[in-house]
Design a protein that fits this description.
With 183 residues, the protein is an alpha+beta fold. It has three domains: 55 residues, no CATH class; 77 residues, Immunoglobulin-like; 47 residues, no CATH class. It has four helices and eight strands. Strands 1-2-3-4-6-5 form a six-stranded antiparallel β-sheet, covered by helices on one side. Strands 7-8 form a two-stranded antiparallel ribbon.
């Protein structure tokens, strides 16, 4: 995955997006308003969406595009692949967060209550605290990174051949403690 570069906004995209939204059927807008909005309500809604989209800085590399928005007290990273496919590796998101906000900044990916769910495409959202000293009250307090997974190959003296092994799953409680756990 290449490094990100900032893209220059093409204001023509705003008009194409505006046209696409205005062409949506009444059912699309009914989802947001509960009733079919009149033309002025529809226009206001579309302009709010356009302003929200155009206020973001956009970065791209060979695989991903990322919209970066200030969502105080967080920075929101809206991440999507150019090919529209789902993500394949969380390490990509770690690299994106490190490069666009900072390696010592922490981020969360929220799995919301169904009543707040937004699922319109294979887009992902990280909420990053831009303060490198901030730590979320969950997670591990020490770093543990392995180049390859530890394989379980059976009991001592009865080991299976290396090709028959399987990755050892579970957390690394022997070397890392959850944040806030006094033990």
């Amino acid at each position: 995955m290449n490094r990100f570069t900032r893209l220059q906004r093409d204001v023509r995209e705003d008009q194409m997006y505006r046209d696409a939204l205005l062409a949506r059927p009444p059912e699309f807008f009914r989802t947001y308003f509960g009733v079919e909005p009149d033309m002025m309500q529809k226009l206001r809604f579309v302009e709010q969406v356009i302003q929200n989209v155009s206020s973001a800085c956009v970065f791209a590399n060979d695989v991903y595009a990322v919209r970066v928005r200030n969502a105080a007290p967080f920075v929101q990273l809206e991440i999507f692949r150019h090919d529209g496919a789902p993500r394949t590796n969380w390490r990509d998101f770690q690299q994106i967060k490190n490069e666009l906000v900072g390696p010592e900044c922490e981020a969360v990916e929220l799995y919301p209550a169904e009543s707040r769910l937004v699922d319109t495409a294979n887009q992902y959202h990280l909420w990053v605290n831009p303060n490198p000293a901030y730590r979320f009250p969950v997670g591990y307090d020490r770093r543990l990174v392995l180049d390859e997974p530890v394989e379980y190959r059976g009991r001592a003296g009865e080991e299976a051949p290396r090709s028959a092994g399987r990755p050892l799953t579970g957390d690394n409680t022997a070397t890392a403690r959850p944040v806030g756990n006094p033990s």
